[in-house]
Amino acid sequence: MAALLKVPPQSSGGTNGSCKADVVVSDQFPAGLRVLVVDDDVTCLKILEQMLRRCLYHVTTCSQATIALNILREKKGCFDIVLSDVHMPDMDGYKLLEHVGLEMDLPVIMMSADGRTSAVMRGIRHGACDYLIKPIREEELKNIWQHVVRKKWNENKEHEHSGSLEDNDRHKRGGEDAEYASSVNEGAEGILKGQKKRRDSKDEDDGELENEDPSTSKKPRVVWSVELHQQFVSAVNQLGIDKAVPKRILELMNVPGLTRENVASHLQKFRLYLKRLSGVAQQQGGIPNSFCGPVEPNVKLGSLGRFDIQALAASGQIPPQTLAALQAELLGRPTSNLVLPAMDQPALLQASLQGPKCIPVEHGVAFGQPLVKCQTNISKHFPPTVVSTEDVPSGFGAWPSNSLGTVGTSGSLGGLSAQNNNILMDMLHQQQQHQQQQQQQAVIPEPSRSINVQPSCLVVPSRTSASFQAGNSPASVNQNCSFNRNAVIDYSLLTPQSNNSSLSVGQISDGDLKNTTVLGGFSAPGSISPSVSSCSVNAGNSTTRPVQNSTVTFGAPRQLPGVVSNICDIQGSYGARSGEVLDQGLLRNLGFVGKGTSIPSRFAVDEPESPISNLNNGKVYGENEGNRVKQEPNLDYMENARVGVPMLPHFTPNDLMSVFSD
Amino acid sequence: MLGLGADRLRADMNRLLALLFHQGVLDEQFLQLQQLQDETSPNFVSEVVNIYFHESEKLLRNLRGLLMDREFSDYKKMGIHLNQFMGSSSSIGAKRVRNVCVAFRAASEQNNRAGCLRALELVEHEYCYLKNKLHELFQLEQQRVLAAGVRYPIQN
């Protein structure tokens, strides 16, 4: 019950985004829903405005579609839902709908006096979440908030498919370890199975818990598996991207059960993905700064992250690994500013997503209330980190955020195994991979990381594949998660320990949240995750963070006990240390995710410790392992981090990393 | 005495409304409109209806212009206008106008020029009737408010 009640407020809070945070809505949810109404018919506009006011919604009206689109672009995250007329002189309502769906990913309700089936069908095909026939009655408008919630739930679900949040939930609920273990060492097929298993178990869980609503309400949807997506891509290639129309693609794919609508929506996202991809490549140089800004970074990051996510979703467990690999790459190359941007992106994505987008809800699901707060914390940290980091360290700042976002992913990573990574790599090979690789390379210039990079490169393809699928799971958050996972994965490939670490990572995320709460004093901590809570020590950790970073590697992390509890659950063997590490990781994450990334390397070096580091890194720390493997690179990072002394508090993770590397 | 006048005017309004409902000129959507009128927007109904009249006259002019072009009538554009006209008419509860619009649109979709012209005449007629009746209604309303206002300045 509590969860159900929570969701709407959180979602609204999330949508508020950077501007308002989660202040307003919590009590009476639908009230305050921010609605944009677009209709060239002034009469209807006026009536609708009044009706929506009566519903206590916050109404913005606009009589021109082009202006509405500009408003939406300028005020991203300031609207929860769009009501649009179908026939408008300056821009077709369907066109607006497409733009909104692709750029803002907001629920759009179409309205028209034309209630003929063909018109309604067209609206649905273009992605309208509802189609209201004029005259519109107040009762219909009272209910539109459901689309906002439903959309968030669905996104949540997609995130879960990517593995991140779901993992968190499971960890919290306990008893899922077995699943992970089984899935970890399985090949690609095994992974897929594992995913199914997860889903099943998830559904069971849902029956008992708050997730019930989303899962049950969600309609069956096409899962764009790697194979399916490849079929899709090859069909598109055959037709040519410009000439590819859903109908032809569908014919070429010849997959029973697949509908034109499925293909159309996938194609839309695929195109968007390509667009973003090119955008990312262009913007990589300047990325770091942009990351600071929520919107653009999100977009860029989103593309990468989404890809990863998609891949994950498609393969099931795979995505996390690939993500981890990606993250590892990024983390491994922290020294280079370019890399940092990538990291930042995830963080930004998370931050931004949490704010404006629905993300908060998801967090709420996985983490509970604390999530929201964490987000806020993150956002706060970021700006400073970014500023300081700009030279080298900036990247680190971004990392922490990643770690937060990744938490869920880290869990998924845990389940994944080196084998999986390899498998994924193979599966992932796609045309897009090349693109992504290029991008990644651009992002990660540092040579020292090169070793890690290669794995990551392999991983990259997976990303691409993932990204294609991602269309379904666009949430940027997933991306972040994926990054972390990627890092973990790579490491795991390098060393057996990495697997352990990966598990810890999953837990870590929880830990991070908790940590953040403790350290930051954020409200989130207590509620965030049971596993973390067991580690209660965190408060001390928070204070200690900086010190620990500077001084010893492991010891400090261990002190951060909050994480440990998570670790214990997951990795049993790793025990307390890992948990401690996790705590630090959390702290680091809060302060600066980037540091966390370095942690993974540590794991590689000291197996026993590694679990801890994993936990800490959870999100961020996957990198540490990488560092160890590539000790030199890590050292560089560490040094960099240290250089930016003022930054240190944020960078604590880095410090830790450096220590370890030393 | 003035109070009695206000009551009588209210009764007149109700009678007129009942007549319009009975004739099918208005439907329950008009009542929705009335319910939307509150302290924050005391003249909501008349404001909306005036906007509607203003927009409708533009639409009717455009429709007539499109149909008067003997060489080439843009039926697609006509359909878009009619859609808007239908949307706004139904939104204020102008049932008969809307119904004629539906017939008009059907004719335009068949590129039936004669049918369109007939429908246009009908729409114009219905529109004028509605406009006259609603003006009547608003005048009664205005008088009623004045009458009530003199006697009971505090009450509405």
TrEMBL record, chain A:
Q: What is the lineage of its organism?
A: Eukaryota, Viridiplantae, Streptophyta, Embryophyta, Tracheophyta
Q: Where is the composition biased (Basic and acidic residues)?
A: 156-176
Tell me the residues on which 4-aspartylphosphate occurs. D85
Supply the InterPro entries for this chain: ARR-like, CheY-like_superfamily, Homeodomain-like_sf, Myb_dom, Myb_dom_plants, SANT/Myb, Sig_transdc_resp-reg_receiver
Q: Which PANTHER family match?
A: TWO-COMPONENT RESPONSE REGULATOR, TWO-COMPONENT RESPONSE REGULATOR ARR14
> Where does the record say this protein resides?
Nucleus
Domain HTH myb-type: start-end pairs: 216-275
Keywords carried by this UniProt record:
Activator, Nucleus, Phosphoprotein, Transcription, Transcription regulation, Two-component regulatory system
Q: What is its main location?
A: nucleus
In terms of superkingdom, the source organism counts as Eukaryota
Where is the Response regulatory domain positioned along the sequence? 34-149
Give the NCBIfam families listed for this entry.
myb_SHAQKYF (TIGR01557)
CDD domains referenced in this protein's UniProt entry, alphabetically = REC_typeB_ARR-like
Annotated region Disordered: the residues are 156-221
Q: What is this protein called?
A: Two-component response regulator
Q: Where is the composition biased (Acidic residues)?
A: 203-213
**Is Transcription one of the keywords UniProt gives this record?**
yes
Q: Which SMART domains match?
A: REC (SM00448)
Automatic annotation (TrEMBL), chain B:
The record's annotation in InterPro entries points to:
AHP1-5/YPD1, HPT_dom_sf, Sig_transdc_His_kin_Hpt_dom
Q: Which GO terms describe its biological process?
A: cytokinin-activated signaling pathway; phosphorelay signal transduction system
GO MF annotation terms: histidine phosphotransfer kinase activity; protein histidine kinase binding
Domain of life of the organism encoding this protein: Eukaryota
Query: Which residue numbers delimit the HPt domain?
Result: 47-130
Instruction: Cite the entry's keywords alphabetically.
Output: Acetylation, Cytokinin signaling pathway, Cytoplasm, Nucleus, Two-component regulatory system
Tell me if Methyltransferase is a UniProt keyword of this record: no
Subcellular locations according to the entry: Cytoplasm, Cytosol; Nucleus
Q: Which PANTHER family match?
A: PHOSPHORELAY INTERMEDIATE PROTEIN YPD1, PSEUDO HISTIDINE-CONTAINING PHOSPHOTRANSFER PROTEIN 6
The free-text domain remark for this protein reads: Histidine-containing phosphotransfer domain (HPt) contains an active histidine that mediates the phosphotransfer.
Q: What does this protein do?
A: Functions as a two-component phosphorelay mediators between cytokinin sensor histidine kinases and response regulators (B-type ARRs). Plays an important role in propagating cytokinin signal transduction.
Q: What is this protein called?
A: Histidine-containing phosphotransfer protein
Look up and give the organism this protein is from: Vitis rotundifolia
